[in-house]
Write a structure and sequence with these properties.
6 strands, 38% strand, globular
């Protein structure tokens, strides 16, 4: 599968997720790249005033919800539509961010029996300028 086909698969998987209670399902976010062989994707979003905590960092609830939503979509796309359930989700805000900052969230997933993924929220175009991170462990639902 080439990069554009996989990017579109991740985007379509996220759009068709059955769990529409996710806050992030309504968040403006775009899959800007995806790498099937590298088991990763990059999602672009903009931090707004409402997504920044009183401490000036990305709200950790936002980080957790967005990471859960997009790493789940990535894992599903990588595993031929197979669904998985979250067993652990850890988030950490690292430093203050300004409203209007454009972010690239890089999601990466392992190729394992128990899926594990990370999401790194960094400044667009500057992957070393990291604002928040999340780790996500899941297990696959039994096949029917």
């Amino acid at each position: 599968m080439d990069a554009e086909e996989f990017r579109q698969l991740v985007a379509n998987t996220a759009q068709s997720k059955e769990s529409h209670y996710y806050y992030s399902s309504g968040l403006v976010a775009t899959v800007v790249s995806a790498d099937f062989a590298g088991r990763s994707c990059v999602v672009e979003l903009t931090a707004t005033e409402s997504e920044i905590s009183d401490a000036g960092c990305l709200d950790e609830g936002l980080v957790g919800t967005v990471a859960d939503y997009w790493t789940s979509a990535l894992i599903t796309a990588l595993n031929q539509g197979r669904s998985a359930l979250t067993t652990s989700l850890t988030v950490q805000a690292l430093k203050p961010i300004d409203p209007g900052s454009v972010l690239h969230m890089t999601c990466a997933a392992t190729d394992a029996r128990q899926p594990y993924a990370t999401a790194t929220f960094a400044a667009a175009g500057e992957s070393s300028d990291v604002y928040a991170v999340a780790t996500h462990t899941k297990f696959f639902k039994p096949r029917a």
